[in-house]
Amino acid sequence: MRIPSTQALRALDSFARHGSVWRAADELHLTRSAVSHQLRLLERDLGFDMLQRVGKGITLTARGRRYAHDVRKALAMLSDAGDKQDSKGIGGSFSVSCTPGFASLWLSTHIAGFQELYPGVSLRIVTPRRLDDVSQPDVDVFISFGIGNWPNHAVELLCDIEFTPLCSPSLLNKLGGLARPRDLLRSNLLHLGDFEDWSRWFAATGVENPDPECGIVFSDMNLVFSSAIAGQGIAMGDELTSRKALDEGRLVRPFDIAIKSPRSYFLVSERAKADHPIVSAFGGWLKSRLGEYEASSRKAYSRQ
């Protein structure tokens, strides 16, 4: 059997990940006919049926999927070998999936520091469909929010989270202040996805018969914070992602009472990628920067 060309193997890998010729062509900057030609040549060289027609399209056979999985690992090994020979130590493309709130409210305001340390790394930041989703095959590492249960993955705790009510100074003035936790029910409550955090906070503060399901439910933490800053209601936020808004006076904490979240931020990757130089470098930088940020936040809060 002839050794397939690297271009054909990359075409297969891209087709397997995206599930369509046109998406593979777009990623590889080739025409659709060029990608189709590479796949046909690869099938001929391999000597077995790798593609099958389904309706008007094509998909991989079971054997084709297994081969594509092995090809992906082989291409990753080739990339690793190139990175190890890079004159600057670490280089190559690197994709990070990060929850929308953490990405916009923390990572996007610090990520240039990593790029300065590792200029040879080409970064791509994406957001997942769910806060605990680690299923995207073209992502190298995930910053996920969950309970830490991701089987068959390398999982490392980044930081625990405590939630507390947050609102704009203008809303606080409009309400005439908030003397006790039950007074929060005089305003809209802003929720992210469900009512769990507000229910737990009211239970911890001894508020009897609250209605935590009143208010507005959002699908994205950015929307929750935007609404809170605009004085549309009271959000349940954490010190990590809200620190900048608190420092700038756009949000305030009406109460010092906080509850520990049952979920935390974790760094998650496939076990095969866990020891990759870029993954190790990114994880080390992220933990160091979060530690510095947490320490500075504690000092800032102690002065308030």
The major pleated sheet works out as: 8 strands, mixed
What would you say the CATH architecture of the largest domain is?
Answer: 3-Layer(aba) Sandwich
What order do the helices and strands follow? HHHEEHEHHEEEHEHEHEHEH
Number of strands: 10
Uncertain ranges: 83-87
Number of domains: 3
CATH superfamily of the largest domain: Periplasmic binding protein-like II
Overall body shape: elongated
Task: Quote the distance from N terminus to C terminus.
Answer: 71 Å
Helix content: 40-55%
Report the CATH topology name of the largest domain. Answer: D-Maltodextrin-Binding Protein, domain 2
Strand order of the largest sheet: 4-3-5-10-6-9-7-8
The mean pLDDT is 86
What structural class is derived from the secondary structure elements? alpha/beta
Beta percentage is: 15-25%
Write the layout of secondary structure elements.
Elements: H1 6-18, H2 21-28, H3 32-46, E1 51-54, E2 57-60, H4 62-84, E3 92-98, H5 100-105, H6 111-117, E4 121-126, E5 141-146, E6 153-166, H7 169-174, E7 189-192, H8 196-204, E8 216-218, H9 221-229, E9 234-238, H10 239-247, E10 259-270, H11 277-302
Parallel strand pairs: 3-4, 3-5, 7-8, 7-9
Antiparallel strand pairs: 1-2, 5-10, 6-9, 6-10
Please describe the structure with a list of short key phrases separated by commas or semicolons:
single chain, 304 residues, alpha/beta, D-Maltodextrin-Binding Protein, domain 2, 3 domains, 11 helices, 21% strand
